[in-house]
Amino acid sequence: xxxxxxxxxxxxxxxxxxxxxxxxxxxxxxxxxxxxxxxxxxxxxxxxxxxxxxxxxxxxxxxxxxxxxxxxxxxxxxxxxxxxxxxxxxxxxxxxxxxxxxxxxxxxxxxxxxxxxxxxxxxxxxxxxxxxxxxxxxxxxxxxxxxxxxxxxxxxxxxxxxxxxxxxxxxxxxxxxxxxxxxxxxxxxxxxxxxxxxxxxxxxxxxxxxxxxxxxxxxxxxxxxxxxxxxxxxxxxxxxxxxxxxxxxxxxxxxxxxxxxxxxxxxxxxxxxxxxxxxxxxxxxxxxxxxxxxxxxxxxxxxxxxxxxxxxxxxxxxxxxxxxxxxxxxxxxxxxxxxxxxxx
Length: 344
What we know:
It is a single chain. Helices cover 43% and strands 17% of the residues. The chain is α/β, with parallel strands linked by helices and 344 residues long. The chain has three domains: 50 residues, CATH 1.10.260; 131 residues, Rossmann fold (3-Layer(aba) Sandwich), CATH 3.40.50.2300; 146 residues, Response regulator (Rossmann fold, 3-Layer(aba) Sandwich), CATH 3.40.50. The strands form three sheets. A six-stranded mixed beta sheet has the order 7-6-8-9-10-12, sandwiched between helices. The chain has a four-stranded parallel beta sheet with strand order 2-1-3-4, with helices on one face. α8 packs parallel to α9. The protein is elongated, with a radius of gyration of 24 Å.
């Protein structure tokens, strides 16, 4: 009786679609899966078997970077970093946008996998939580290279992201070095893990400092207008911090613009630090200090990890890796004029 793909699937436990991709030399298959399928095919005398294919590592050719793209400098900088990273790492990268990701991400990914064009997927959709990642795992084959750049608690997928905790910690340390002791924070939404990490780093440094006090907090939504609203809320509260850590640059820019319009002198009356170090930080007056997140490095590490998964996807599927961040001091937080090396 002629051997079929179903016979090989029954022998190995893999799906028929996975067997088909292996026998068609798809680059999206791990070395372990490839070897097991070819061994079973040889055992069952499947006539197109070619063991030499199983012994070669494959390279990423096409990678899908999937986001819920929004207008503004953040996503432009994020994607630009990936484009720069693949100049060194090799594969073509395509930016794909998914509308209504909470409801559509699983069927969208199922379609991506079935089409067979992309060798791996990188997700950056911060609003997803672990219930959404569980639905993703149900439609994506276990050996398909996929990872996330969005931080969640107890990640289900391999996640590579920035060390937001360190960013908040460095911001508080910088204020202490500048003898700016009465502090406030504009945090991001509480339901987002990256917001909590940045907040926790900032707060923990303050708690362990005899010099610093956290006097005022405001929860924003990461948008420019939220920074303006935060400034108005601060005025209404009557609290006057000397230094303010803002959890992203959009809110920081909105806050600084509103403060300057109301006659505040920055940093003399109120020092400000943002997060992400977007181009807007050096396009404002004063230039805004910010925690630098290196998107090129994020891209390079993500592509390398996808390549590793492509050749051997048998390791942990929920590993979390943090990329270091660095505070770039500028006019908004340094009372003596300092020009960061990055701005020269």
